[in-house]
Amino acid sequence: MGDSVQLSLQKYVELRLAEREKELISHTVSVLEKQVVSQQKAIEQLSLQIKRVTEEREELKIKVIHLEKEIDISNERLILLQKYSQRGQKVDEEIFENGSNEIKHKQKLLVEELISKKRNTSTSVATSNVSTKESINPFSIKEVQLNKPYSGKPSFIKTAILNEYINHISQTDLNTQFYISTTSVCKKVPKYCFQIEYRLLCEVFTDSIIGNSNIVLLKGYPSVVSHKIFELYCTKSNMLDLLKIIKDPQQRSQTRVIIGLFNKCVLALEEMRKRSGFCQNYSIIKDRYPHVQFVALGRYE
User: Fold this and answer.
1) Does 174 share its domain with 27?
2) Are residues 118 and 154 in the same domain?
3) What long-range pairs does 67-73 form, CB within 8 A, spacing at least 24?
4) Do 28 and 91 fall into the same domain?
5) What CA–CA distance (Å, rounded) separates 295 from 273?
6) Cα angle vertex 64, ends 121, 268, to 5°?
7) pLDDT tens digits for 45-95?
8) What is the pLDDT of residues 153-206, one digit of tens each?
9) Whole-model pTM?
10) Domain limit, last residue, from 147, 168, 197
């Protein structure tokens, strides 16, 4: 007979308890490791959200600068108008231009600084924490796609194009009033009568390109779907009746009519500006859906 090992009942119980305790410890360690991994992912997501909020804050700063510039120019004009009115003299528009150039220059420098910060932040977002599927942020994906060359298909707007657009539009004279109504672009009285103001059109397009919202490159030009531009325009100009129609899926046929009128107004406004000696900023392209294009700086490759 082989040798047999005899254990007392007490020793056997102690051994079984030790094995059970070992299993519990192993299970606890496994649970804690999973919790640590989960917390690390949560921290990564929070970090990306913080960076995204930082980007949005910088974009808001740019918008604030635009508004402050407009306020400064308006205040400057008001002071000069009061001054010349008291003297009974005629106001010279050249004085306004000279006075506002300095404001525009300062605003341009601030915008360039903010865009530079935004570009650095966006790059860090795109290159960090993309090793796991759970940590990928849609804003990171968007920034990665910014660096793809134009291949004939729509692509997200590059940061450099955003910078060039802001520089151009900040130097564009928007003090001269240009506006047109749908009754002026149709041979017959249209079903929908509304007015488009060029200054507000520029503001809406600028908001879209700063926010990188719905912006694509079509045939090398930064473009936004006309429907989206007009939707923002209606919101800013308080054209709530038209806004209700174009947001109603059941009224697509009427929406097409309204957007068609809007596109005609955009083209007519640019023709008015060209006749006044200004360069053309926007055009309309008919892709799958009509888009408003920024064409002033030429085609991007």
Assistant:
1) no
2) no
3) 68/107, 69/103, 69/104, 69/107, 69/170, 72/100, 72/103, 73/100, 73/103, 73/175
4) yes
5) 14
6) 105
7) 888 888 888 878 877 877 787 777 778 777 766 776 666 666 665 555 554
8) 444 556 777 778 888 888 887 777 888 899 888 888 888 999 999 999 998 998
9) 0.49
10) 147
The DSSP element (H or E) to which 106 belongs, if any, is helix 93-127
From the centroid of its chain, how far is CA 208?
5
| Helix/strand/coil percent split, the chain, to 5 | 65, 10, 25
Do 237 and 112 reside in the same domain of the chain? no
Structure tokens at 199: 């200054």
Structurally, the chain folds into a number of domains equal to: 2
Residue 284, strand partner residues = 292
pLDDT at 47: 84
CB atoms within 10 A of CB 127: 11
Residues of the domain holding 58: 1-147
For residues 88 and 174, membership in a common domain is answered with: no
Indicate whether 120 pLDDT > 60: no
176 in the same domain as 261: yes
Q: Are residues 122 and 229 in the same domain?
A: no
